[in-house]
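Field reference: "sequence" (input) and "structure" (output). Example, Pyrrolidone-carboxylate peptidase:
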Amino acid sequence: MRTVLITAFEPFGGEQINPSWEAVRQLHERMVCGCKVMARQLPCAFGDALSALYAEMEALQPELVIAVGQAGGRADITVERIGININDARIADNNGNQPIDEPIIPDGPAAYFATLPIKAIVDGIREAGIPASVSQTAGTYVCNHVMYGLLHRLAQQSDKARGGFIHVPYLPEQAVKHPGSPSMAAQTIILALEMAITIALRTEQDLRLVGGATH
């Protein structure tokens, strides 16, 4: 069966929940465009997050991989354009590691662009009445670590699977502890992520029908 892998993170930085996982876990085993969505939680830890991601990619052989993470302070669903080859942590990860100015992949390219149809995803989410935008930075913490590592692995594969990263805002129950911070309801985030999967899969199907490129 054709599969989609969607990942999210465990809580970090003193939070009791992570909105990415609270939303992503609700998509587990959902059928979208003939594909079975498989949700997996990643540790919020440099190195371990990529090891877990790569193990799931090997086991599932997905045709689409979307990693999702928390971006406290952002008001909308943000689809990331680029992952950069640097770990530069403002705070320690959940293993207590805090790399500074270290490459994710030694001798790897400086950056990778997402292979998702990022603007089509943003437009589709907006049309549903959900705030969304393209983001030009995934930061330099574990989210960027996973995005870059994911795209590096996909670039080495011959099956041309697509992949990218989406950031989501705080949930309301988190935002009350951060006065002035925006939030978004879990059901709204779930809908946006399901739409992102649908648009990415339909774009891929359309390209195959016309024999077009996959990037």
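The beta strands are 3-9, 31-32, 35-42, 64-70, 77-80, 82-84, 111-113, 132-135, 162-168.
DSSP finds six helices and nine strands in the chain.
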